[in-house]
Design brief:
The protein has two helices and 19 strands. It is mainly beta and about 300 residues long. It has a domain of about 200 residues: Sandwich (Jelly Rolls), CATH 2.60.120. The strands form four sheets. Strands 7, 9, 10, 12, 15, 17 and 19 form a seven-stranded mixed beta sheet that branches. The chain has a six-stranded mixed beta sheet with strand order 8-11-18-13-14-16, with no helix packed on it. Strand 3, helix 2 and strand 4 form a beta-alpha-beta unit.
């Protein structure tokens, strides 16, 4: 008899449930699959706690483009990010707005005829348009179209044109990043001395604050297909959030977990905002490449 009872209870737990589910309420909303009440007694209240993770832990979540709306709370003050985040099918963003209120203010895809609205740029270094495929990985050195922008054995200091964000509460910068070896050998790729930096200026480019710094490790090589995100929250103290190529990744030749998206959150709603991206490497078989630079108003 006892065994039958246990079997019955176990069966109830594994059978699929249909209709609305209520937690703390016996009358869940007919519009909700899950309705969580904040109180049972009317005098004691509780909140709803989503999964709490660091950036590295979040990047281990195997998301796909169909996972739109996935929520986590990122508690990672050492990396400058403490906020509720949602996945929009491409990147993780702090939940201070929705995709519906996110507006592309300016963008640069480095094509011969760039997509509008165009984010103009000048390079004080030796960066150049990149096309074709890498030596290692042997995938495309661009995201879409036919080319990206990058540097091989040198410095690119890419300063974008001033933009006005006063119509928005804040801004978000997103761009794609890849590190290739120009040969099929494993000796190429990004090392500790190979850097990607993001600076901002709120005075039209007179002075800059470094907000994010990313360095290679052990000849790290990765293309534009990784799901990982390198991110920082703007604080304008010229003390950058620092990441390296081992964060949230596995091995030297990085695959789908590689951090191929860079996100700078909380850009000030300034009327003369300037962004600078610096790419630095020091070997003939090393290539940094960036593509699809997008500045959103939130």
């Amino acid at each position: 008899m006892t065994k039958r009872f246990v079997y019955l209870i176990a069966t109830l737990f594994v059978l699929p449930c249909f209709g609305q589910v209520g937690v703390g309420t016996t009358t869940p909303s007919s519009a909700a699959m899950l309705d969580v009440s904040s109180t049972i007694t009317g005098t004691t209240y509780r909140g709803f706690s989503p999964p709490v993770v660091t950036i590295d832990q979040r990047d281990l979540i195997a998301v796909s483009p169909t996972d739109v709306g996935l929520l986590v709370f990122v508690n990672d003050p050492s990396n400058g990010v403490v906020c509720l985040q949602y996945y929009d099918g491409t990147i993780w963003s702090c939940l201070n707005s929705s995709v519906a209120t996110r507006t592309i203010v300016a963008q640069q895809d480095f094509e011969a005829a760039p997509a509008a609205p165009i984010l103009t740029f000048v390079d004080a270094g030796i960066g150049a348009n990149q096309s074709g495929t890498g030596g290692n990985p042997t995938s495309s050195v661009f995201v879409s179209g036919t080319q990206s922008y990058g540097v091989n054995n040198g410095l690119a200091s890419i300063t974008f044109g001033a933009v006005d964000l006063t119509a928005f509460a804040s801004g978000t910068l997103v761009f794609k990043l890849a590190a290739f070896s120009t040969t099929t050998a494993t000796s190429g790729g990004a090392d500790n001395a190979d850097l990607v930096q993001v600076h901002i200026s709120t005075d039209g480019g007179t002075s800059f604050s470094e907000e994010l710094s990313f360095s290679g490790t052990g000849n790290a090589r990765f293309d534009f297909n990784g799901s990982g995100v390198i991110e920082a929250l703007v604080d304008q103290d010229d003390n950058p959030t620092i990441h390296d190529a081992t964060d949230g990744s596995i091995g030297t030749l990085l695959g789908l977990n590689a951090q191929s998206t860079v996100t700078l959150l909380g850009l000030p709603n300034d009327n003369d905002l300037v962004i600078r991206i610096v790419l630095l490497n020091n070997s003939a078989n090393e290539l940094w490449a960036i593509d699809d630079v997008i500045l959103y108003g939130e």
